[in-house]
User: Which sequence fits this backbone?
């Protein structure tokens, strides 16, 4: 009896383990265990995406960062948008019926021809689509008499609806021209802190005056902006909008393709101004309302964002034109079909790239990234192999059926010399030679190869490919730094750099007069250690120059930039629109921090009167051979003075799982989710195939624990049955 | 007892004022309000006007400690310190520097933090006590020595290795659980099981060793020997005599931690993508969001003081001889 | 003309001061029979001897790594013959000892003892045809004529290295033998440990200069070198953090317990306030502030390492503050107890001055608490460094540290095949130190804690 008890216990334990194990194995056959995605509703097509940094603003008047546009541009629409497939980038009407009609006026608002001296204003007339409706939203919910349902007098009253999802009724209405006027007034209202306020005030007539008037009003309650007129912006009728801007600014149409110009119903502002709403984060900054293909049904700043198909979305067919390549690679298969193709899109906040990548490889994300490509350099080698003619997907990726989309952003990353700096700045010939010498040793090609895995193109000037003024081939190289050898640009040798350095007064990196070593200070936020920092230092050592890092956090760094307390710094520019003007203005003297009294875009503090003059001439011209000639001269000036170095244009690679199609990337537009298509069946099949759990470690752990416990139990029993003997009594005491 | 608690709470006020003073000075030296404004306004086309607006809107344009221009009590009240730091005492945390209301963020993030911290804490204590009791049962034997060696080795490994290694093996190689993420409600277990297991395993070394010392002290005292002599089984001795008698030191170490569970775990939440208060703090530190850090410091201090009071109270419950007055 | 220019970092001064004063302190204790007995107890166990020697070798490496200098640049034309300019890279005596290990940089990853790169690159064969392959490493195994049989060479070189190490080890053992008399301590164990440590070091030095023993990281730096350089950071943070705050903690703790009254109230208020702030937030806030100070005053620092060093000192300081309250509380309680003892009361009655009572009666009797805190805190601080570096408020990224290594190595686990050696390198060196410190501190605690002594 005494012996039978433990054995019985063991048997029960064993059978339990067996039961558990078989359950585990059974479970393994049905569904993967590591599915991080919440269960789907039946029949629904869900897209799974991710983003990497917490969003700050979703108000289209306020937001100005690439991560936010990933969402804003799905929800809001502007009068115009970029064509999804066509390259180079072209605008097409979105909420507008057609492209704008532009007339030119003199200062008495009488029409004049475009090239007239008297030209004072440009008037844009935009005809809008009819019948466009807003996404369902409680702000537009009315009772049967047409009065707004949700207006409250006190925070206590509004507390019955703690979150936006608690409002039982939603409403909609048709979009009218007045909504565009209202949004432009919101841009003009300093209270809304639009980043474009200062910039657009230079153009839109009456914008600054509007701001001043509005700020004089009492702001303790909702201020109805409709009651204050804005001179330059008018709704002629419900479907016609006119905007009058100062002077000539052909690039203005591009601005009207950005979310800043999306319509906002005035009811929204009234709704979000309900007492107590702001305290509960109920603001337009968090819960948007637009006319786009998707509406935001969940915005949890801590976890993620869910977009759902807008039930009121108009018929918007997939484009039927594109590039030649689109015909062959299937990008036009869905031509003419109503968009969007997915019902829901969930985006999870993934602050770390490592788990994000692993989940993509396991098939839980449809694409490698939505806001950024998320292929860290350590993963890049796993994804790509470099072959004779560029990058190719690795065998592993090909086996998985993964496809790649490339994206060339109109952007430039560069190191800037501070032209005010006594050592590297200045416009004399020896200073130019010093900058040129440093530019030569900063081997961008090698940098891109080692650290960006070849994802980029060396910049030969300030204008990136795909933009007017960019020249390909031999004619396009920077002759100060490159030679054309065997059909390729070839960086001049280190010897040339050494010679230039000596001519600049620093033979072997030592001051000609004192012998003091030349130390160049690089201001950075990135820290002074790590592979890239090492690499840079080694480049400088090649000509005997010492590189020293001055690191600081981003805030301090910007302070230094503003005050001009830098020597060499890394910077980048992502264009707002595809026109050379948006790049060349970065070097005009009016854009230095000193002259604009702001965080100037001319980070190098470059000042050249001839360049400025050419810029003023070029910026209002339509694209033409004359304009290209001026552009070429400006680029030549920049190359000679060399205020920037080591520039490159990024080429991004995004990976798509095999079941995702229509993933062509656009360098500027982000409203691409509606074009995207998914094959659900393939996805669930692949997910199951790729995620079979490995169970033996689990079993092994169980076994190990059992093995550990079993002798313990036995030893315990033995100890319990021990008889007291003097020896043991003693050993017990000595403990 | 109530009088005691109220008096203790009253004592807490100067401490919290001190805490506020420290953080206040630390953070207003780091960044002038204009710097914070610049960081939050974005990158392109930022004008001085926009910065001034932002600073004024957030109320950072007041003098720091003493307002010479105001009159009467406003000389003290119309200052950043009074408005931003002392207002915390009313638990009115105000908006973060990015505009969101801190109080509601703290409330929503508390859930995930607790969902991770409470199971880790309870299971951790349970496992540690069990292991320690088991080891104590075999005190003086080789098993005991081996176990202590194991404990010391386990506690000599950095927590980062447990997390990195566990996540790599269990999620990436064996595909047993999702790599990271969180869902509210019962779906959460899938995401929490790995961090909880890792947390428990990482804590065994330190925890079990500590409990072992406590139990060892109690196990060889007279009452335990008497019980053994009476024929009580070893298990009985451990559970009925040793454990209750080691309770007082256990409470000292354990109860003070309980309120701090609300603050979550910085590392675990960051690695496993759990949207709790730990990752909230981490984000705030990285973004230098002064308003959030200030709030979290205050909340942390309040919880610490509550923990101290709770410890005192738990003494009276565990040991009738202790009286609070 | 001087070939080198010494660079004296604040932490260098402090660690040397610490070691010297600690040795002096232990030397004076020689006369005290009680503490002699206690130390004897610590070292009479083999474990105590082994761990002590391991910790000692770590400290020795850290000390050697705390002698910094800059090399002079060669003269050029036009230079004033009197002035010498120095390179802006700072080296330490350890770099000199390690030979070329730190300078043998490859292009990118390579696995331990490998002769070839870990990743494929575009190469051209004899016929000029491009192909993808693993290029040979620039430095590893460059002494070999025939690269096929390099396993044999590794074994041979290992023997040479171990042999060199053993020779040094035997020399040290002889020294040890000459200076020790008492035979009841496990000197044999000590010597064996010493020999093993020396052999290991000799092997690392010798083979590490020929191969990459622990592979290379992404930038092609030798992982073994990085791990060894991390020792200084680990050891210094473990000792300096406690040391910096110790004078304040001792003064306040003893005053509070001795004078009682309002002094006690104020001290209690200070440490309750400080310890109620969540440590991590306090550290983060302080480090951010300190970094700003460093950024705003670049003129204080001649070379980059000095900035990193200043931040490191700040980190030690703030870590000290967060762990300070515990020591202060213990000291206060102990002083309260001691000042009630009859002989202290008697000293009062005879009109002995406060300072004298504290120095003669109280300080010696709380010394064991200070010692125990110092040893017990050590390992925790080493571990904390890694976590803080992960959060971004640890040591400067320019400073070699295990925390920074782990941080960089984390993403390597997602590579296929996996890059494990960087993580393992940091793990091994850190684990050995922390384990030894933990075991040693247990022994010290057992020997010095009066509570434990009573039970024996």
Assistant:
């Amino acid at each position: 009896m005494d012996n039978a008890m433990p054995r019985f216990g063991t048997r029960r334990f064993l059978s339990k383990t067996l039961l558990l194990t078989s359950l585990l194995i059974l479970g393994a056959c049905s569904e993967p265990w590591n599915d991080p995605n919440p269960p789907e509703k039946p029949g629904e097509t869900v897209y799974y995406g991710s983003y990497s940094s917490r969003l700050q603003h979703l108000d289209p008047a306020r937001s100005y960062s690439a991560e936010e546009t990933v969402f804003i541009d799905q929800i809001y629409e502007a009068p115009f948008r970029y064509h999804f497939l066509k390259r180079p980038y072209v605008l097409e009407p979105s909420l507008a019926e057609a492209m704008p009609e532009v007339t030119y006026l003199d200062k008495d608002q009488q029409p004049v021809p475009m090239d007239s001296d008297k030209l004072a204003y440009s008037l844009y007339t935009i005809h809008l689509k009819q019948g466009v409706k807003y996404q369902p939203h409680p702000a537009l919910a009315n009772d049967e008499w047409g009065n707004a349902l949700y207006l409250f007098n006190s925070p206590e009253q509004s507390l019955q609806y703690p979150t936006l999802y608690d409002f039982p009724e939603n409403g909609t209405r048709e979009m009218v021209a007045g909504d565009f006027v209202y949004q432009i007034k919101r841009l003009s209202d300093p209270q809304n802190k639009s980043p474009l306020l200062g910039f657009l005030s230079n153009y839109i007539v009456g914008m600054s005056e509007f701001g001043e008037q509005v700020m004089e009003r009492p702001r303790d309650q909702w201020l109805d902006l409709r009651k204050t007129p804005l001179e330059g912006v008018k709704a002629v009728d419900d479907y016609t909008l006119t905007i009058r801007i100062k002077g000539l600014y052909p690039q203005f149409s591009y601005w009207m393709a950005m979310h800043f110009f999306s319509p906002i119903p005035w009811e929204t502002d009234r709704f979000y101004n309900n007492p107590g709403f702001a305290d509960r984060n109920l603001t337009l900054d968090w819960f948007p309302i637009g006319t786009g293909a998707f509406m935001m049904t969940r915005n949890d700043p801590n976890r993620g964002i869910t977009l759902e198909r807008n039930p009121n979305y108009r018929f918007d067919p997939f484009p039927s034109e594109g590039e030649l390549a689109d015909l062959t690679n299937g990008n036009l298969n869905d031509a003419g079909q109503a968009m969007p193709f997915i019902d829901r899109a969930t985006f999870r906040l993934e602050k770390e790239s490592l788990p994000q990548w692993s989940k993509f490889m396991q098939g839980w994300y449809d694409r490698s990234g939505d806001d950024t490509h998320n292929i860290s350099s350590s993963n890049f080698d796993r994804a790509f192999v470099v072959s004779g003619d560029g990058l190719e997907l690795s065998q592993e990726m090909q086996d998985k059926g993964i496809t790649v989309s490339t994206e060339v952003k109109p952007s430039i990353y560069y190191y800037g010399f501070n032209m005010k700096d006594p050592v590297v700045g200045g416009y004399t010939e020896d200073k130019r030679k010093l900058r040129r010498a440093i530019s030569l040793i900063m081997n961008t090609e090698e940098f891109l190869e080692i650290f960006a895995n070849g994802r980029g193109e060396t910049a030969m000037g300030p204008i990136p490919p795909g933009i007017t003024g960019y020249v390909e081939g031999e004619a396009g190289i920077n002759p100060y730094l490159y030679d054309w050898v065997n059909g390729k640009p070839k960086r001049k040798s280190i010897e040339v750099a050494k010679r230039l350095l000596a001519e600049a007064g620093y033979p072997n990196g030592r001051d000609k007069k004192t012998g003091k070593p030349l130390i160049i200070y690089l201001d950075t936020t990135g820290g002074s250690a790590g592979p890239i920092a090492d690499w840079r230092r080694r480049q400088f050592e090649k000509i005997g120059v010492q590189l020293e890092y001055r690191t600081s956090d981003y805030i301090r760094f910007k302070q230094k930039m503003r005050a001009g307390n830098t020597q060499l710094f890394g910077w980048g520019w992502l264009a707002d629109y595809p026109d050379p003007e948006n790049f060349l203005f970065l070097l005009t003297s009016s854009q230095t921090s000193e002259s604009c009294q702001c965080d100037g875009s001319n980070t190098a503090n470059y000042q050249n009167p001839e360049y400025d003059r050419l810029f003023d001439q070029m910026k209002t011209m339509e694209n033409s051979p004359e304009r290209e000639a001026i552009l070429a001269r400006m680029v030549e000036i920049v190359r000679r003075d060399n205020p920037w170095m080591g520039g490159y244009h990024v080429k991004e690679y995004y990976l798509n799982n095999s079941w995702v199609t229509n993933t062509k990337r656009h360098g500027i537009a982000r409203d691409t989710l509606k074009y995207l298509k998914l094959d659900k069946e393939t996805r669930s099949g692949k997910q199951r195939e790729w995620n079979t759990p490995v169970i033996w470690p689990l079993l092994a752990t169980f076994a190990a624990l059992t093995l550990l416990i079993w002798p313990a139990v036995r030893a315990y029993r033995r100890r319990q049955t021990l008889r007291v003997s003097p020896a043991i009594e003693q050993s017990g005491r000595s403990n | 007892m109530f009088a005691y608690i109220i008096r203790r709470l009253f004592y807490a006020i100067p401490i919290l004022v001190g805490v506020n003073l420290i953080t206040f000075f630390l953070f207003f030296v780091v960044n002038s309000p204009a710097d914070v404004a610049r960081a939050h306004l974005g990158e392109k086309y930022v004008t001085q006007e926009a910065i001034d607006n932002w600073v004024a809107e957030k109320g950072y344009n007041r003098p720091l400690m003493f307002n010479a221009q105001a009159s009467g009590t406003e000389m003290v009240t119309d200052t950043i310190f009074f408005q931003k730091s002392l207002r915390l005492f009313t638990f009115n945390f105000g908006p973060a520097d990015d505009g969101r209301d801190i109080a509601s963020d703290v409330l929503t993030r508390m859930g995930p933090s607790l969902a991770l911290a409470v199971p880790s804490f309870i299971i951790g204590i349970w496992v540690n006590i069990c292991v320690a009791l088991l080891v104590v049962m075999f005190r003086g034997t080789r098993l005991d020595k081996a176990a202590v060696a194991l404990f010391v080795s386990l506690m000599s490994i950095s927590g980062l290795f447990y997390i990195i290694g566990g996540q790599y093996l269990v999620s990436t190689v064996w595909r047993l659980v999702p790599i990271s993420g969180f869902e509210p409600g019962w779906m959460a277990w899938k995401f929490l099981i790995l961090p909880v297991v890792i947390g428990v395993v990482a804590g065994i070394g330190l925890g079990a060793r500590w409990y072992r010392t406590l139990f060892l002290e109690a196990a060889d005292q007279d009452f335990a020997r008497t019980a053994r002599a009476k024929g009580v089984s070893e298990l009985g001795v451990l559970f009925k005599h040793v454990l209750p008698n080691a309770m007082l030191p256990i409470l000292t170490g354990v109860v003070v931690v309980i309120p701090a569970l609300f603050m979550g775990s910085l590392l675990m939440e960051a690695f496993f993508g759990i949207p709790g208060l730990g990752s909230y703090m981490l984000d705030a530190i990285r973004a230098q969001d002064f308003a959030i850090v200030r709030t979290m410091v205050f909340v942390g201090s309040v919880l610490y003081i509550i923990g101290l009071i709770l410890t005192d109270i738990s003494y009276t419950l565990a040991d009738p001889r202790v009286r609070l007055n | 003309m001087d070939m080198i220019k010494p660079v004296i970092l604040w932490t260098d001064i402090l660690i040397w001061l610490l070691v010297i004063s600690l040795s002096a302190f232990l030397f004076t204790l020689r006369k005290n029979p009680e503490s002699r007995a206690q130390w004897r107890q610590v070292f009479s166990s083999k474990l105590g001897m082994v761990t002590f020697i391991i910790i000692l070798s770590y400290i020795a490496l850290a000390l050697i790594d705390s002698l910094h200098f800059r090399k002079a640049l060669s003269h050029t034309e036009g230079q004033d013959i009197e002035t010498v300019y120095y390179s802006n890279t700072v080296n330490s005596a350890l770099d000199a000892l390690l030979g070329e290990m730190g300078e043998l940089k490859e292009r990118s990853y390579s696995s331990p003892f490998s002769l070839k790169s870990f990743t494929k690159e575009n190469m051209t064969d004899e016929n000029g045809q491009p192909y993808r392959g693993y290029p040979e490493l620039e430095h590893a195994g460059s002494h070999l004529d025939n690269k096929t049989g390099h396993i044999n060479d590794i074994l041979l070189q290992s023997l040479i290295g171990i042999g060199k190490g053993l020779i040094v080890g035997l020399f040290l053992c002889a020294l040890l033998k000459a200076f020790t008399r008492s035979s009841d301590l496990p000197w044999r164990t000590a010597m064996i440990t010493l020999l093993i440590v020396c052999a290991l070091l000799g092997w690392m030095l010798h083979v590490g200069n020929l191969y990459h023993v622990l592979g290379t990281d992404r930038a092609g730096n030798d992982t073994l070198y990085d791990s060894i350089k991390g020792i200084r950071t680990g050891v210094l943070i473990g000792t300096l953090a406690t040391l910096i705050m110790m004078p304040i903690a001792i003064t306040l703790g003893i005053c509070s317990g001795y004078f009682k009254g309002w002094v006690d109230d104020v001290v209690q208020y200070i440490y309750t306030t400080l310890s109620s702030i969540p440590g991590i937030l306090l550290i983060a806030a302080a480090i951010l502030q300190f970094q700003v100070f460093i950024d705003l005053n670049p003129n204080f620092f001649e070379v980059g390492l000095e900035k990193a060093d200043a931040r490191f000192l700040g980190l030690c300081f703030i870590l000290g503050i967060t762990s300070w309250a515990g020591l202060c509380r213990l000291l206060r309680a102990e002083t309260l107890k001691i000042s009630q003892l009859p002989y202290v009361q008697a000293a009062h009655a005879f009109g002995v001055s406060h300072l004298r009572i504290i120095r003669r009666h109280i300080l010696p009797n709380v010394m064991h608490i200070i010692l125990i805190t110092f040893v017990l805190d050590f390992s925790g601080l080493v571990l904390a460094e890694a976590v803080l570096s992960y959060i971004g408020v640890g040591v400067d990224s320019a400073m070699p540290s295990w925390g920074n290594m782990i941080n960089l190595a984390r993403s390597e686990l997602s590579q296929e095949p996996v890059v494990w050696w960087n993580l393992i390198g940091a793990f091994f060196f850190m684990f050995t130190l922390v384990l030894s410190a933990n075991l040693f501190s247990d022994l010290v605690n057992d020997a010095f804690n009066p509570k434990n002594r009573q039970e024996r």
In short: Residues 1-14, 727-735 of chain A have pLDDT under 50 and may be disordered. Residues 411-652 of chain A form a domain with the Dipeptide-binding Protein; domain 3 fold (CATH 3.10.105.10). Residues 372 and 404 of chain A are 14 Å apart (CA to CA). Residues 4-30 of chain A form the longest helix (27 residues).
